[in-house]
Amino acid sequence: MQDKEILTAEERAIKCAAFALDKKALDVKVLEIKKISSIADYLVLATGRSDRQVMAMADSVKQSMKPFDRPIDMEGYEQGRWVVIDYGDVIVHLFLEEVRKIYNLDELWQRAPQIEIPEEYLWENKGA
């Protein structure tokens, strides 16, 4: 049996963001919350335009993270409106646009420092 590659929580959070971005996620943020909350060390927030896109983002994160980590739990997948994937120290929130606005986790966690996502993973501002 092959050992999993060992990554820090921050590296795994960035990978989760990258795998959501692979499915054209919008407004992706990685927030470091370890100094302001005990629920996790990092939150990843991302938005999709449709329930099918949110589900595709969840599939991408879950499948692509297998070499690094397995989720403790995943909720909301069947509806595709707000999917939460819990990796313990990293929690991924994948939203439909209107659901993200309603629950406004961005404002709730506004004190949390935002971790920069490497340019190579970003797709929105690349020449189209």
Automatic annotation (TrEMBL):
Q: Look up the domain of life of the source.
A: Bacteria
Q: What's the chief localization of this chain?
A: cytoplasm
Q: What keyword terms does UniProt attach to this protein?
A: Cytoplasm, Repressor, Translation regulation
SUPFAM superfamilies hit by this protein? Nucleotidyltransferase
Task: Give the UniProt entry's GO cellular component terms.
Answer: cytoplasm
Q: Where in the cell is it found?
A: Cytoplasm
Q: Which GO terms describe its molecular function?
A: ribosomal large subunit binding
Q: In Gene Ontology terms, what is a biological process of this protein?
A: negative regulation of translation
| Alphabetical list of InterPro entries matching this protein | Iojap/RsfS/C7orf30, NT_sf
- Summarize the subunit comment: Interacts with ribosomal protein uL14 (rplN).
Q: Which family does it belong to?
A: Belongs to the Iojap/RsfS family.
Task of the protein: Functions as a ribosomal silencing factor. Interacts with ribosomal protein uL14 (rplN), blocking formation of intersubunit bridge B8. Prevents association of the 30S and 50S ribosomal subunits and the formation of functional ribosomes, thus repressing translation.
NCBIfam families recorded:
rsfS_iojap_ybeB
Full protein name: Ribosomal silencing factor RsfS
Supply the source organism for this entry. Answer: Citrifermentans bemidjiense (strain ATCC BAA-1014 / DSM 16622 / JCM 12645 / Bem) (Geobacter bemidjiensis)
List the gene name.
rsfS
